[in-house]
Amino acid sequence: MTHRLYHHDAFLCGFQARVLSCEPDPAGFRITLDQTAFYPDSGGQPADRGQLGGLPVLDVSETADERVCHLVSGRLEGEISGEIDFGRRFDHMQQHSGQHLLSAVWVRLFNLRTIGFHLGADFSTIDLESEKVTPAQIQAVLDEVNRAVWQDLPVTVSFHPADEAPALGLRKPTERTGLIRVIQIEGHDRSACGGTHVRSTGQIGLVAVLKTEKIRGTTRLHFICGDRAWRAFQLHLGILDRISGLTSAGFPELPARVEKLLLGAREMEKEIGRLKNELLEKQVPELRGQGRLPDGSCLVSLLLDEPAPAARFLCQKLIAGENATFALVAARADCSLFIGRSPDLALDLQLLAARLRERLGLKGGGRPDLIQFGGQTPELLRQAMDLSRDWYMETLQE
Question: Which of the ends of the chain has fewer CB neighbours closer than 10 A, N or C?
Answer without folding.
Answer: C
